[in-house]
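Researcher: We're reviewing a set of sequences before deciding which ones to prioritize for further study. For each one, I'd like a predicted 3D structure that I can look through quickly. This is Indole-3-glycerol phosphate synthase. If possible, include the structure in token form so it fits the rest of the review sheet.
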Amino acid sequence: MTILEQLADYARERTEQGKRKRSLEELKKQALSLPDKKFEFENAIKRPGLSFICECKKASPSRGIIVHDFPYVQIAKEYEAAGAECISVLTEPKWFLGSNEYLKRIAGAVSVPCLRKDFTVDEYMIYEARVLGASAVLLICSILSERQINEYISICDEMGLSALVEAHDEREVTMAVQAGARLIGINNRNLKDFTVDTHNSFRFREMIPGDILFVSESGISTGHDVKKLREIGADAVLIGETLMRAEHKGAKLAGLRGVI
Ligand SMILES: O=P(O)(O)OC[C@@H](O)[C@@H](O)c1c[nH]c2ccccc12
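Model: Here's the predicted structure for Indole-3-glycerol phosphate synthase, in token form for your review sheet.
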């Protein structure tokens, strides 16, 4: 079994556990009673200029523990103060050492829109994301069908949540477009073997129609990488490890933006 299949299986297991504590019906009712998120995540990315989605991530299956000290709310506030347009929060507990609690606390502490970074495999996780305060969810093409993606986008639409649809190859980009994605993330990391190739973003750029927002994800570590992505018209970059390892996150972000 690939790591991706294990991650998806474990997400299904977590969902079943969640449902035992709180039924889908109950969770859905709460989520739908909360204020509409008005697509604030994609609207933040739509504004002119390249947007930065800065990620709070303690560990990953490819890197192991990235930082031992993880004051996640403080990190998120630092990102916000440094001008991050959006924040991504890992909630996957086993391999990424994330937590729903982190998302809830961060979303409550910052005013920029937050993405729930997890392996969405059930509508339950989308309602849960809204209840936790997220403005967006991740939909990974390689663990979902086109129909599921389409259905999950409709669920997001009801709550004004944005769906970042992640693709890694040609087939998946086509799938994302056909499923009606308005926001596509090209993952430069292959989640099956962890190889990173930032050229992935360049390779698939032209497959993405102009009216769909384009996010380049993973392995972005220098101002040069960012400059290249800006040149091909990326709407946003999603950066985790580079920022997590930086002692001064504000300065690092400014350097990546090319303003210092
Ligand atoms: O830490 P990096 O290389 O900057 O990558 C961030 C982000 O793209 C990565 O965490 C990611 C991209 N797609 C995912 C899917 C699940 C979990 C994590 C991810």
